[in-house]
Amino acid sequence: PGPIRQRPYRKSLSQVLAAFRKETQSLPLPELGQAAFRLLLEQTGSSDASLTQMHASGRIRASAAIPWTPEKIAWYARHGHTMLMMLTESSMIHFGWEIGPGIAFTFPDSIFRASAIYKFVYSRLGAHYMAATYLPPDPEGYKLVFAVTRPDRDYNRRELRALQAIIAEYGERMFHVPEMGEIQSGELEREGMTFELGPSFLAQGVSH
Questions:
Q1: N or C: the chain end with fewer CB closer than 10 Å?
Q2: Distance (Å, rounded) from C-alpha 135 to C-alpha 173?
């Protein structure tokens, strides 16, 4: 699928965030997290978004994605372990850690498109352009890493500012590990699948 939004942005980012705060102030956590994901897709013009709880060593505790389609469920069930190994060994991780938390960035082609995970995973899913940011580590050293992707063009400065601002304000509420773990497990079981990579990795997402 193409980006969610391709027309020029008619409101400033501050106006968009102010309206979103007002509209969602009474939402409970799960619904607020899903609304924030939709806002992220819209304001960055992205077709997909993901978040991963990752240690500085590369170990992944959990991951979520939106939209979480039947095609993605089937794909990750077949190739998830290979994807995990590629991600933890990717030079993209080291590049991102050097940028620092709270800063939205894109990857140079020499890192992103040259990586095994791009060739095996992202290119096959139509994710030819990516932007990312992450929050400071928790007491155990795990960071929440957020990424958005789309098929057709690189991210501009306005979209990077949107990614940075939305994650700074809503990132923690978009991924709360205990609740997300329960949601993930239940939804996967309803699909008749169990998708675990390693002792504590569970991948699932919220519906678009």
A1: N
A2: 12
First-to-final CA distance of the chain: 12
CA-to-CA distance for 105 and 116, rounded, in angstroms? 20
User: CA nearest 205: which of 11, 34, 85?
Assistant: 34
**DSSP bridge partners of 205:** 65
Beta strands in 69-194 (DSSP E): 105-106, 129-134, 142-150
Bridge-based pairing of strands 142-150 and 129-134 is: antiparallel
The per-residue pLDDT for range 170-203, each reduced to its tens digit, is: 998 887 533 333 334 333 333 333 333 333 333 3
Helix, strand, coil content of the chain in percent (nearest 5): 50, 20, 35
Q: Tokens in use for 121?
A: 């995973």
Return d(Cα 30, Cα 70) in angstroms, integer. 21
Helical ranges in 45-113 per DSSP H = 70-88, 91-99, 109-112
* This prediction's pTM: 0.80
DSSP bridge pairs for 106: 131
Tens of pLDDT, residues 49-103: 988 888 887 777 777 777 777 777 777 777 777 777 787 767 898 899 999 999 9
Distance in angstroms (rounded) separating the CA atoms of residues 96 and 75: 26
Task: Tokens for 17, please give them.
Answer: 């965030």
